[in-house]
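Much of what follows relies on a compact textual record of a protein's fold. A complete example follows; check for yourself that the lines match position by position.
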Amino acid sequence: MNKSANVTSGEIYAIPLFLSTEKDTKSFSRNKFEDKGKEFVFCRVIEDFKGGGILIEVFDHVGTLDETLSDILKSNRLFSPISTSGLGIAKKRWKKIHIQENYDKEKNSKYSEITLVAGTYDDLSLWKGGTTVGSISEIEAGKYEKWIVWRASHLEKRIIKELFGEVAN
């Protein structure tokens, strides 16, 4: 699915806050969104897991397509890193606006500290910094982000809810 996304670690994408009700399969290749104002948040590609999604971190910075790389990078994460399908990138829904030169996933994103829960309720495992570290209980799993491959529209709705406490229809 994200094979056509063709991403590189360190790329910064603008995620629109005005498309969450649009279908994930709709192409926006003709749309430049240049008429939009402060209606974007930004994410950085940490690692492409191919069939397992693209690991990204979403920043809490809201702005325009003209935001500087330094302004985006000095903001905080909105929530723990998550995995996305890459369809938002492949369909040009999310616009690449920067690439962080010499990006280092450990130094810049604290890769070894990123923790996700994989599996089903009866067989959960903890993934930390690229390594499965073992089984965990359902109660313990509640402390961590689940390894869900988020679709663009669902992630956009989550971002809107985190930022503004509301859910787009």
